[in-house]
Amino acid sequence: MLSAEQVTVRYGRGRQRITAVAGASLALAPGQRLGLTGPSGSGKSTLAQVLALLRAPDGGRVRLDGQVVTGAGLGVPRQLRRRVQLVWQSPRAAVDPRLRLDRVVREPLIAHGEPPEAHSRLLAEVTEAVGLTRELLTRYPHEVSDGQLQRAALARALVLRPQYLICDEPTAMLDVSTQASLLAALADRQQAGGAGILLITHDRVLADHWCDEVRDIRDLSLRAQPGPVRV
Prior knowledge:
Elements: E1 2-11, E2 18-28, E3 33-37, H1 44-51, E4 59-64, E5 67-69, H2 78-81, E6 84-87, H3 91-94, H4 101-111, H5 116-130, H6 134-137, H7 146-158, E7 164-168, H8 176-193, E8 196-200, H9 204-210, E9 213-216
Parallel strand pairs: 3-8, 3-9, 6-7, 7-8
Antiparallel strand pairs: 1-2, 1-4, 4-5
Protein backbone atom coordinates (compact mmCIF):
# COMPACT_ATOMS: atom_id res chain seq x y z
CA MET A 1 0.00 0.00 0.00
CA LEU A 2 1.24 3.51 -0.90
CA SER A 3 -0.49 6.13 1.20
CA ALA A 4 -0.49 9.82 1.97
CA GLU A 5 -1.65 10.43 5.53
CA GLN A 6 -2.82 13.95 6.40
CA VAL A 7 -0.27 15.40 3.97
CA THR A 8 0.19 19.17 3.86
CA VAL A 9 2.42 21.01 1.38
CA ARG A 10 3.12 24.74 1.35
CA TYR A 11 4.93 27.03 -1.06
CA GLY A 12 6.54 30.42 -0.53
CA ARG A 13 7.47 32.33 2.60
CA GLY A 14 5.87 34.71 5.03
CA ARG A 15 2.66 36.34 3.86
CA GLN A 16 3.20 34.95 0.38
CA ARG A 17 3.10 31.38 1.65
CA ILE A 18 0.20 29.35 0.30
CA THR A 19 -1.12 25.90 1.06
CA ALA A 20 -1.13 23.68 -2.02
CA VAL A 21 -2.30 20.52 -0.24
CA ALA A 22 -3.90 20.61 3.21
CA GLY A 23 -4.18 17.43 5.24
CA ALA A 24 -4.87 15.13 2.28
CA SER A 25 -5.18 11.38 2.79
CA LEU A 26 -5.14 8.90 -0.09
CA ALA A 27 -4.17 5.23 -0.40
CA LEU A 28 -3.20 3.21 -3.48
CA ALA A 29 -3.23 -0.58 -3.27
CA PRO A 30 -1.23 -3.01 -5.45
CA GLY A 31 -3.19 -3.90 -8.57
CA GLN A 32 -5.60 -0.98 -8.12
CA ARG A 33 -6.46 1.65 -10.71
CA LEU A 34 -7.24 4.78 -8.73
CA GLY A 35 -8.30 7.99 -10.43
CA LEU A 36 -7.66 11.45 -8.98
CA THR A 37 -9.52 14.40 -10.49
CA GLY A 38 -10.01 18.06 -9.70
CA PRO A 39 -9.64 21.49 -11.32
CA SER A 40 -6.35 23.09 -12.31
CA GLY A 41 -4.52 24.48 -9.30
CA SER A 42 -6.14 22.13 -6.81
CA GLY A 43 -2.89 20.42 -5.78
CA LYS A 44 -3.03 17.20 -7.83
CA SER A 45 0.50 17.48 -9.23
CA THR A 46 1.91 18.47 -5.86
CA LEU A 47 0.35 15.43 -4.22
CA ALA A 48 1.68 13.28 -7.08
CA GLN A 49 5.23 14.43 -6.37
CA VAL A 50 4.82 13.67 -2.67
CA LEU A 51 3.49 10.17 -3.38
CA ALA A 52 6.33 9.62 -5.88
CA LEU A 53 8.79 10.39 -3.06
CA LEU A 54 10.14 13.42 -4.92
CA ARG A 55 8.90 16.04 -2.47
CA ALA A 56 8.74 15.81 1.31
CA PRO A 57 5.47 17.04 2.83
CA ASP A 58 5.47 19.94 5.30
CA GLY A 59 3.04 18.00 7.45
CA GLY A 60 1.70 14.47 7.62
CA ARG A 61 3.55 11.48 6.22
CA VAL A 62 3.88 9.03 3.34
CA ARG A 63 3.86 5.33 4.03
CA LEU A 64 5.12 2.72 1.57
CA ASP A 65 4.18 -0.89 2.26
CA GLY A 66 3.97 -0.18 5.97
CA GLN A 67 7.18 1.86 6.20
CA VAL A 68 7.10 5.60 6.89
CA VAL A 69 9.21 7.38 4.26
CA THR A 70 11.30 10.35 5.37
CA GLY A 71 13.09 12.76 3.08
CA ALA A 72 12.63 13.00 -0.67
CA GLY A 73 14.45 12.33 -3.92
CA LEU A 74 17.97 11.05 -3.41
CA GLY A 75 17.41 11.27 0.34
CA VAL A 76 15.12 8.24 0.10
CA PRO A 77 16.82 4.81 0.09
CA ARG A 78 17.23 3.40 -3.41
CA GLN A 79 15.24 0.24 -2.65
CA LEU A 80 12.23 2.41 -1.78
CA ARG A 81 12.60 4.85 -4.67
CA ARG A 82 12.52 2.13 -7.29
CA ARG A 83 9.14 0.86 -6.04
CA VAL A 84 7.40 4.12 -7.03
CA GLN A 85 7.75 5.84 -10.40
CA LEU A 86 6.16 8.98 -11.85
CA VAL A 87 5.04 9.73 -15.39
CA TRP A 88 5.07 13.50 -15.74
CA GLN A 89 2.39 15.49 -17.54
CA SER A 90 4.77 17.03 -20.08
CA PRO A 91 7.31 14.57 -21.50
CA ARG A 92 9.30 17.37 -23.14
CA ALA A 93 9.92 18.94 -19.76
CA ALA A 94 10.71 15.58 -18.16
CA VAL A 95 13.39 14.16 -20.49
CA ASP A 96 16.87 15.37 -21.36
CA PRO A 97 16.72 16.69 -24.96
CA ARG A 98 20.37 15.71 -25.48
CA LEU A 99 19.67 11.98 -25.08
CA ARG A 100 18.34 9.54 -27.64
CA LEU A 101 15.19 7.73 -26.58
CA ASP A 102 16.99 4.47 -25.84
CA ARG A 103 19.18 6.30 -23.31
CA VAL A 104 16.13 8.08 -21.87
CA VAL A 105 14.55 4.71 -21.13
CA ARG A 106 17.79 3.26 -19.75
CA GLU A 107 18.40 6.10 -17.28
CA PRO A 108 16.70 4.44 -14.27
CA LEU A 109 18.61 1.20 -14.89
CA ILE A 110 21.89 3.10 -14.79
CA ALA A 111 20.90 5.17 -11.76
CA HIS A 112 19.83 2.09 -9.79
CA GLY A 113 22.92 0.06 -10.63
CA GLU A 114 21.27 -2.62 -12.74
CA PRO A 115 23.93 -4.81 -14.41
CA PRO A 116 24.61 -3.73 -18.02
CA GLU A 117 23.90 -7.23 -19.34
CA ALA A 118 20.28 -6.86 -18.17
CA HIS A 119 19.70 -3.53 -19.91
CA SER A 120 18.94 -4.81 -23.40
CA ARG A 121 16.42 -7.36 -22.18
CA LEU A 122 14.58 -4.91 -19.94
CA LEU A 123 14.68 -2.18 -22.59
CA ALA A 124 13.21 -4.50 -25.22
CA GLU A 125 10.52 -5.66 -22.83
CA VAL A 126 9.15 -2.22 -21.96
CA THR A 127 9.59 -0.54 -25.34
CA GLU A 128 7.71 -3.35 -27.07
CA ALA A 129 4.97 -3.07 -24.45
CA VAL A 130 4.43 0.66 -25.09
CA GLY A 131 4.84 0.45 -28.88
CA LEU A 132 8.26 2.01 -29.46
CA THR A 133 10.18 0.63 -32.44
CA ARG A 134 13.94 0.22 -32.61
CA GLU A 135 14.09 3.01 -35.17
CA LEU A 136 12.31 5.44 -32.83
CA LEU A 137 14.74 4.59 -30.03
CA THR A 138 17.59 6.01 -32.11
CA ARG A 139 15.94 9.44 -32.32
CA TYR A 140 16.24 12.48 -30.10
CA PRO A 141 13.19 13.99 -28.36
CA HIS A 142 12.87 16.80 -30.92
CA GLU A 143 12.65 14.19 -33.68
CA VAL A 144 9.52 12.45 -32.37
CA SER A 145 5.90 13.41 -31.70
CA ASP A 146 4.45 14.15 -28.26
CA GLY A 147 2.74 10.77 -28.26
CA GLN A 148 5.96 8.92 -29.11
CA LEU A 149 7.87 10.85 -26.46
CA GLN A 150 5.20 10.10 -23.86
CA ARG A 151 5.58 6.41 -24.71
CA ALA A 152 9.29 6.72 -24.00
CA ALA A 153 8.55 8.46 -20.71
CA LEU A 154 6.16 5.65 -19.79
CA ALA A 155 8.74 3.02 -20.74
CA ARG A 156 11.29 4.80 -18.54
CA ALA A 157 8.88 4.66 -15.61
CA LEU A 158 8.12 0.97 -16.20
CA VAL A 159 11.65 -0.32 -16.78
CA LEU A 160 12.32 -0.84 -13.05
CA ARG A 161 9.05 -2.78 -12.70
CA PRO A 162 7.66 -0.47 -10.00
CA GLN A 163 5.02 -1.59 -7.57
CA TYR A 164 3.28 1.78 -7.81
CA LEU A 165 2.99 4.07 -10.82
CA ILE A 166 1.87 7.70 -10.51
CA CYS A 167 0.64 9.08 -13.84
CA ASP A 168 0.15 12.86 -13.84
CA GLU A 169 -2.11 13.74 -16.78
CA PRO A 170 -0.25 11.27 -19.04
CA THR A 171 -2.73 11.64 -21.91
CA ALA A 172 -3.47 15.37 -21.69
CA MET A 173 -1.36 16.31 -24.73
CA LEU A 174 -2.42 13.38 -26.92
CA ASP A 175 -5.14 12.75 -29.49
CA VAL A 176 -7.92 10.31 -28.69
CA SER A 177 -6.45 7.30 -30.53
CA THR A 178 -3.03 7.79 -28.93
CA GLN A 179 -4.67 8.17 -25.51
CA ALA A 180 -6.43 4.85 -25.96
CA SER A 181 -3.25 3.13 -27.11
CA LEU A 182 -1.22 4.46 -24.19
CA LEU A 183 -3.85 3.44 -21.63
CA ALA A 184 -4.04 -0.01 -23.21
CA ALA A 185 -0.27 -0.35 -22.79
CA LEU A 186 -0.61 0.70 -19.16
CA ALA A 187 -3.35 -1.85 -18.58
CA ASP A 188 -1.26 -4.63 -20.16
CA ARG A 189 1.76 -3.85 -17.99
CA GLN A 190 -0.41 -3.69 -14.89
CA GLN A 191 -1.91 -7.07 -15.67
CA ALA A 192 1.58 -8.51 -16.15
CA GLY A 193 3.11 -7.02 -13.01
CA GLY A 194 0.25 -6.15 -10.66
CA ALA A 195 1.30 -2.56 -10.04
CA GLY A 196 -1.03 -0.06 -8.45
CA ILE A 197 -1.68 2.91 -10.76
CA LEU A 198 -2.78 6.40 -9.74
CA LEU A 199 -4.19 8.17 -12.80
CA ILE A 200 -4.38 11.93 -12.33
CA THR A 201 -6.61 13.59 -14.91
CA HIS A 202 -9.00 16.46 -15.57
CA ASP A 203 -11.12 14.08 -17.62
CA ARG A 204 -13.70 12.61 -15.24
CA VAL A 205 -15.29 10.53 -18.01
CA LEU A 206 -11.93 8.93 -18.78
CA ALA A 207 -11.26 8.29 -15.10
CA ASP A 208 -14.68 6.72 -14.55
CA HIS A 209 -14.18 4.47 -17.55
CA TRP A 210 -10.62 3.31 -16.85
CA CYS A 211 -10.27 3.31 -13.06
CA ASP A 212 -11.66 1.05 -10.35
CA GLU A 213 -12.33 4.05 -8.11
CA VAL A 214 -12.21 7.81 -8.62
CA ARG A 215 -11.60 10.49 -6.00
CA ASP A 216 -11.79 14.26 -6.26
CA ILE A 217 -8.85 15.95 -4.56
CA ARG A 218 -11.20 18.50 -3.04
CA ASP A 219 -12.78 15.71 -1.02
CA LEU A 220 -9.48 14.46 0.44
CA SER A 221 -8.91 17.26 2.93
CA LEU A 222 -9.99 20.60 4.31
CA ARG A 223 -8.11 23.60 3.02
CA ALA A 224 -6.08 25.32 5.67
CA GLN A 225 -6.60 28.67 4.02
CA PRO A 226 -7.88 30.23 0.81
CA GLY A 227 -5.20 31.52 -1.46
CA PRO A 228 -4.05 32.20 -5.01
CA VAL A 229 -3.76 29.55 -7.69
CA ARG A 230 -1.98 26.47 -6.35
CA VAL A 231 0.42 24.21 -8.19
